[in-house]
Amino acid sequence: MISFQCDYMEGAHPALLKRLVETNLEQTVGYGEDPYCRAAKEKIRAACGCPEAEIYFLVGGTQTNAAVIKAFLRPFQGVLAADSGHINVHEAGAIEAGGHKVLTLPQREGKLEAETLETYLQAFFKDESHSHMVCPGMVYLSHPTEYGTLYTKQELTGIKRVCSAYGLPLFLDGARLGYGLAADGTDLTLPEIAALCDAFSIGATKVGALFGEAAVFPKGAPAGFFTLMKQQGAVLAKGRLLGLQFDTLFTDGLYLEISRHAISMAQRLKEILKKNGCLLWVDSPTNQQFVILKKEMRERLSGKVGYEVWQELQDGGAVARFAVSWATQEADLQALEQALA
Amino acid sequence: MISFQCDYMEGAHPALLKRLVETNLEQTVGYGEDPYCRAAKEKIRAACGCPEAEIYFLVGGTQTNAAVIKAFLRPFQGVLAADSGHINVHEAGAIEAGGHKVLTLPQREGKLEAETLETYLQAFFKDESHSHMVCPGMVYLSHPTEYGTLYTKQELTGIKRVCSAYGLPLFLDGARLGYGLAADGTDLTLPEIAALCDAFSIGATKVGALFGEAAVFPKGAPAGFFTLMKQQGAVLAKGRLLGLQFDTLFTDGLYLEISRHAISMAQRLKEILKKNGCLLWVDSPTNQQFVILKKEMRERLSGKVGYEVWQELQDGGAVARFAVSWATQEADLQALEQALA
Amino acid sequence: MISFQCDYMEGAHPALLKRLVETNLEQTVGYGEDPYCRAAKEKIRAACGCPEAEIYFLVGGTQTNAAVIKAFLRPFQGVLAADSGHINVHEAGAIEAGGHKVLTLPQREGKLEAETLETYLQAFFKDESHSHMVCPGMVYLSHPTEYGTLYTKQELTGIKRVCSAYGLPLFLDGARLGYGLAADGTDLTLPEIAALCDAFSIGATKVGALFGEAAVFPKGAPAGFFTLMKQQGAVLAKGRLLGLQFDTLFTDGLYLEISRHAISMAQRLKEILKKNGCLLWVDSPTNQQFVILKKEMRERLSGKVGYEVWQELQDGGAVARFAVSWATQEADLQALEQALA
Amino acid sequence: MISFQCDYMEGAHPALLKRLVETNLEQTVGYGEDPYCRAAKEKIRAACGCPEAEIYFLVGGTQTNAAVIKAFLRPFQGVLAADSGHINVHEAGAIEAGGHKVLTLPQREGKLEAETLETYLQAFFKDESHSHMVCPGMVYLSHPTEYGTLYTKQELTGIKRVCSAYGLPLFLDGARLGYGLAADGTDLTLPEIAALCDAFSIGATKVGALFGEAAVFPKGAPAGFFTLMKQQGAVLAKGRLLGLQFDTLFTDGLYLEISRHAISMAQRLKEILKKNGCLLWVDSPTNQQFVILKKEMRERLSGKVGYEVWQELQDGGAVARFAVSWATQEADLQALEQALA
Description:
Chain A is α/β, with parallel strands linked by helices. Chain A is about 40% helix and about 20% strand. In chain A, the strands form three sheets. Chain A has a seven-stranded mixed beta sheet with strand order 2-8-7-6-5-3-4, sandwiched between helices. Chains in contact: A-B, A-C, A-D, B-C, B-D, C-D.
């Protein structure tokens, strides 16, 4: 059985695994102070066009979001996010466990809009009782969003403008950033993201690595960030495992190359589904595709092709999420095509 | 240059890496629900003689300690630990970040004594103002301790007796558990530890794996432990990486076998150091050796052999920690011998 | 100028102040262990028809809510509340500062409905990824609500039924409980609230006292509650000040008597406003009245009568909150009537 | 029976109660925005010689310490305190509940010494693994200390010098500050404390008020301090009760006057105890006296005079704490004298 259930079902891209094997018995110091981490950081800085960026490597997304947000906020502040944001829904209350409220705003296809943000902030500071309320202290976005959609350069610039007007740091969660950068028609590049954000993450867990997120602070990290990571249990003893993987991903453009492969697979998958009569639930340009599967199609796929049921529908149908990744092969799509036929 | 600075300078035991490579492109579900995690848990249950144990796999020690302790404590409680305990010194305040005080007690060579514990508890509950103080809610031990020493079965039984009398769960941090189980003369086995503790961890990061700690709850885990792990950022998306490594370590006794190798290396190292005139700072039966290095010896080792300076001494000497591991080779010891000669 | 801005603009009912003065130079032990606290607790138990209830006195509402909720929840859990609930809006993130998410549900005129709650809980536990989400661990209601509305006995019983089905403790925030108990037509009494809730508060700050909330646990308090109160800074050194005030309020039915007075003032106020052409925004049977004030009426009241602007409307009008209390006098209403004329 | 058990056994100084009674039915806005709070702040600023100071009124000491410390620290930091410090012992883990470790240092008669502090800080930042440890982020002192002792101007200046060298804010807990300022021979005045500290509290609960602590920030308060107070449940709805009491205490020097009375009572009490053969356990110049009571003396006092047993001694004796206050009368001392005779 082939599964499109999520984009973290395989191990790592072979090039990464190869380097782990080759260097396995080398001795290095721990906690990210090794030469591989240093080299990886240099390559990421170069890819971001941001030689001053401070970069830390963490294992997973929840701990990255929790550490970055805790580092920026003061105790009386909360973080603004789309109500569909990962930190609000699927991270088990990690932000609140750190003492901060997630202040939710309505979104459109997973995207927060500058106007929504501005309207909220204006109303908040006009409210006479606002000092009795959690003060917005930063803005969190996902790119791609939880629905696979992407901000345009104009949209992100608009949000940044509002953030600047209110003195709020902007943090972009890039758990699937590669698939955003490689999408057709996107006009947001790594250097532009680095120029617009105060912090962002470059996810590797879903883009070729065994695990790993790079937290990038283009203007420098908040004081004590390493210690905060340690406190959150987010420092890997054998830090070089992260360095080696990121170094490989950012050598000769591998991160983008494997992302582009996934995007082309996703476009093919979308066509297959559409050709078989599926309506798109969201029109996603990235590696996650959300479609409406009728009951009959679910039956045809049953036992042959896996996907994630996003939402059950009344007639036995479902909103389904199909995720492809760097590891998806043409043969997987053919299997899907056959099952649907 | 050879380094004995710590026991996490290399990657993984080749047998583990081999399995990661072999299974790399298999698809499995995430978050530890895969067959490899299930198999690994079965083998650990068998090794512990504890078929009812609940087991969770985490990436690192700090997050394991933080999650286990937070799961057991109520908000008005703190955790009792030796003042030298890892949670009190080198985890950046992870327990306090979770809202709980580490209540420290004096120790002897890193070991908490049942009598110390009992005296404290008696005095605490006799104190008329104790309801204004943090209430002791569980006991934390390390085995081996931070000084490489080991509890005897009698000592651990004594501590358990006090814990039971006061209704306190007992948690044993086994970040280097293998090296404790394999030590010469120890009378504490995995099944005995499982019988005496409410929770303990089996560390793999320092005993053959790329990373990984198994949190074992012989009598069942506290409610919601998985969600708490997720909240702490301690759930690995590709959970099978942990399952595969633990499954391999607990197949055909590999965990103990490589631990025994390290112990024999440690004993050889100890002899070499003693033969060259070093005094033992602590007499450790495990993989970490603490000795007093005179200034002259430090000069001889300089640039050739690495170790950790535990404490600078006034005359240019130092208390030094030498750590060996599953990866240490006879050749490493010869290099040390030569450097000292 | 007369103000109806809120219900805590004056000091205490004279009978309470008199007792504070009379006992001022007596010596008592601190922290609520004094005879006045004991006596007050007995009287509250009697009024609740609940001789087994455990009762603690705290100074304010935010600290009461924070301590009660923290005492019931485990770290992986959150508290369910109407999105208009005080803990979600006007307590500056106190619940999140304690590590827990406020899980919000839609409401009707401030009231959570049993069906809304049940639908949410069914969906939550059916969701396959629910172990990655904050687990609902208790239910919070306000009675009267933030809009002055009241639950009926049937409604509260319905909510309790859902809570019981899912094993969730039910906590009722009674910051203005007196005004709910004294309202015309309510069928919820103190004994019934005590029978249906696992915890509730009896607010005195807004009902005759200088300050004070009684946290009542009909089936016993969570372990360590006093220590948790202390940790939250919610224990008053001179605890008798709370005991004396509650003892007086619960002697000869003073709490209900002064609440009834406020209710009759509120009904008169409502009539005056309606007579002068105001539309009710919510039809509140308690001491807070929400009406729509047109621009012209705001001008007439300006400088003469104070109220709280709840929401600005587009035409210069506003939703206004008028609050009366135990301290409101007939003369105050006459002043309002004159100003409006 | 007369009791010297603590200094918060009575209500308030009659002058304060009188003002509460006189203003009882006035209407004011809540939360400390009233004219009485404003007036009190002006008088405190004048008494501190510090016209720029920002001042907030809180109800109790634990909440004041918790809010001030949380406001200054970043998540990776802890607070340095003497191991006997109130925040470390008798506040039920309030600082840890806020996420921060209390980093304890040895003390002499309750006093932290500049040299101890400096030695610790030098060693901390020299330690190569310090980024894995809780970073010292501020210094907490009590004045008077928990043993009734006082810092001299030179000592406090020395501590301030070390704080400045390491960029650490200095916070002085003045729960009994009046008794420190009024002590014979002290050379620390309010203006000097304001000049040396980044924050300090002026306690009123034990010095004439029903309750109340003023948090004074001579160089301005950390951002969002009011919201943080609210979050901690430390904002009193009827804030004027605090304003009225502090305004009265700082009118015509009442705070110092009643403190001086207590000091003269304490000196008389000390003489009585010494005359009757008690040894001083600490030689305290303030309102708390610590003496060694032999068994026989305890028997004579039994049922006649109360005190706090600080520590039981082996022969049936005890270290006893006798506390006097603004409310202690000559007759109380005579009763003690008679009982001892």
